Amino acid sequence: MDAQPPYSDTLKKIILGTRGSDLALVQTRETASRLRLAYPGLEIEERIIKTTGDKRLDVSLSAPGSLDKGLFTKELEEALLRGEIHAAVHSLKDLPTELPPKLVVGAILEREEDSDCLASKYDGGWQGLPLGTIVATSSLRRKNQLLLLRPDLQTVEIRGNMGTRLRKLLESDTLSALILAKAAINRLGQDLIPEGIRVTVIEEMLPAPGQGAIGIECLEDDTETLRILAAIHHEETARCVNAERDFLKNLGGGCSLPLGTRAIIKDGKIHLRAALFQNGRVEWLTP
Predict the structure, then answer these.
(1) Helix, strand, coil percentages, rounded to 5, for the chain
(2) What is the pTM assigned to this prediction?
(3) What residues does CATH 3.40.190.10 cover in the chain?
(4) pLDDT tens string 156-202
């Protein structure tokens, strides 16, 4: 944790806006826990706000522009701008690289594991899937990387929170597996994985920009909230995820672009690996 700023007596309470999914609530409570450690006297309220992505399960996440338009963030940002909440807690990979005017990312928490993993009815990870079977994912990035590894597989879209998706996999007569973020499993706990489902990390996959990190958005002129959020900001994570998000932004793409990136810090320098995947092949890969 970075150096704690002076506590401000003018802000006794902070309202955190969040989506209502299990993962969003766990991430918000992690944020609240870190704030309480930094400021024991601070009152923290959690306010659930439904986003379009929560209400419109018929919207395809792989449709061009769906995530770029803030499918999971727009209503939270509107609540910020109306002054109904002090800060909005997001999965950073869902937050568009272009924020609305007057809003900034006030803090980024230390990153969880950024890998993707396969939840499967079969042993052996992606190599162990039967020939030609069906894997569920709503991510073009994941779909294209999976088909690069196994061109024989079929993919279908799937929506819903992690528990819902795992239940659909378990109950389906056609699905063999689905792809999830390892960070979500780590945060929600292994107990969520049904008996008979095997989870393995897909080492060969590059994650989405910012995957595994929590970003906290607030008003750029809200100096009190920014000062409080500074106590839980993790600078090393911020350097890495900002490099990934800047790379995405410079490509002119949004969150739905099938781009995989991973930035690490080595010898004080950021090393970024990135690849663009289209139609089950690599369009280009950084050196």
Answers:
(1) 30, 25, 40
(2) 0.89
(3) 13-112+209-278, 116-201
(4) 999 888 999 999 999 999 999 999 999 999 999 989 999 999 999 99
116-201: CATH class: alpha beta
Domain 13-112+209-278 bears CATH identifier 3.40.1190.10: no
Q: How confident is the prediction for the chain on average, in pLDDT? A: 90
Active site residue 94: yes
pLDDT at 3 over 50: no
Per-residue tokens: 130: 């039967």
Distance, in Å, from the CA atom of 59 to the CA atom of 286, rounded to the nearest integer, reads 32
Q: What is the pLDDT of residues 248-260, one digit of tens each?
A: 999 887 767 899 9
Q: How far apart are CA 78 and CA 84, in angstroms?
A: 9
Instruction: List, as one string, the DSSP characters of 88-122.
Output: EEEEGGGS-SSPPTTEEEEEEPPP----EEEEESS
Alpha-carbon distance 12 to 50, whole Å? 26
Residue whose entry in the numeric block shows the structure tokens 């150096």: 3
Which residue has tokens 């162990």?
A: 128
CA atoms of 158 and 68, how far apart (whole Å): 19
Catalytic residue among 94, 114, 116, 222: 94
